[in-house]
Amino acid sequence: MAADALTLARPDDWHLHLRDGEALSRTVRDAARVFGRAIVMPNLVPPVTTAADALAYRKRVLEARPSGSSFEPLMTLYLTERTAPDEIRRARDTGHVKAVKLYPAGATTNSDAGVRDLGRVDDALDAMADAGMPLLVHGEVTDHDVDIFDREEAFIEGRLRPLLARHPTLRVVFEHVTTRAAVAFVRSQPARVAATITAHHLLLNRNDMLVGGVRPHRYCLPVLKREEDRRALLEAATSGDARFFLGSDSAPHARDRKECASGCAGVYTGHAALELYAEAFDQAGALDRLEGFASHFGADFYGLPRAQARVTLRRAERPVPTELPFAGEALVPFRAGETVAWRVESA
Ligand code: NCD
Ligand code: ZN
Asked: Is residue 235 packed enough to be buried (19+ CB in 10 Å), middle (13-18) or exposed (0-12)?
């Protein structure tokens, strides 16, 4: 019989979209409910490209925290072909910018200002390696002739392996891995290469998005893959291998921008992220491995202390509303109108 309660060190989310403005009251409250820290993605409009932008954004996130919350946003810079090595050093010196995000231009939401030619960011990557700052990679090619389901795999051999060879001391997080090939690649690399895995990629395959009617609220990038890929992700997440850790990629878009002729990519799991991971680990009979994945390995990779505080997950069905208020609009959360199987209590 699997356990009905599980107490673990307070987890962190190593890949999270908080958005900005009024949206922060929703996203920050949901994150702070469970997570101690989060790596905050910089794909705002306009993107967070300087240390000053990141500090100003951090302040807005802190102001959106519920009273009494000690949730700590860890900021990131958005890498462009104009990012100067000095900007990397300035960011590092703030003490609050923990990583730099690579979006191949055109790969996903608000990636237009991203990188077209990886050869043009080598100086910035050298500065990051010197500063000990990890590069967070959205690992998909954007070539028109590469099938969307193959874009992650094409990125590995075509872009990531050469980049790692050119920068032998750069630390890299392969974000939101979605394929068996990506899992195998990360396993083949030294400890400077890690990966985050989302809850929705652990729970769903592409049939869950496309069979019996298209479900726009399950559409994200990288897109959901085959069942064999989902199984490989679940195996990696529950293996105890410290190179795989929690990054929810919770990415809200208002209902109207998901349910339309050209819908945005992004799944909102922020209202129940840890609970959803618990379901996935429970399915694999590996609840005892959740603490490493959710609370230890990410902190260790970033060289940050593991949390002292603890949270308790209790097995108890919890209904998910059909929609949530979101910056004056409606947001359809993951499992809308259904239930999640766990509940979080602070210990
Ligand atoms: C993210 C977003 O909406 O910002 N969307 C997504 O589908 N994951 C961007 C990203 O991380 O790719
Ligand atoms: Zn993301």
From this structure: middle
Q: Which atom of ligand 1 is nearest to the CA of 111?
A: 9
Looking at residue 1, what is its pLDDT? Answer: 55
* Order of strands across the sheet that contains 172-174: 13-16, 37-40, 72-78, 97-102, 135-137, 172-174, 193-197, 244-246
What angle do the packed helices 23-34 and 51-63 form, to 10 degrees? 80
What is the per-residue pLDDT across 147-161, written as a single tens digit (0 to 9) for each?
A: 999 999 999 999 999
**Predicted local confidence at residue 122, as pLDDT:** 98
Q: Is the alpha carbon torsion for 206, 207, 210, 215 positive or negative? A: negative
Residues classed as catalytic: 249
Q: What is the pLDDT of residue 347?
A: 52
Task: Please provide residue 249's backbone torsions phi and psi, each rounded to the nearest 5 degrees.
Answer: 55, 30
**Quick one: pLDDT at residue 2?**
73
Q: DSSP E strands: which ranges in 160-269? A: 172-174, 193-197, 244-246
CATH superfamily label, 12-306: Metal-dependent hydrolases (3.20.20.140)
Averaged pLDDT, 172-196:
98
Pocket mutation for ligand 1, best pick of 19, 79, 108 (most atoms within 8 Å of C-beta): 108
- The whole-angstrom separation of Cα 191 and Cα 86 is 27
> Is 76 near ligand 1, meaning CB less than 6 Å away?
no
Please state, in angstroms and rounded to a whole number, the distance separating the CA atoms of residues 195 and 14. 10
Mean pLDDT of 101-109: 95
What's the CA-to-centroid distance between 265 and ligand 2, angstroms?
10
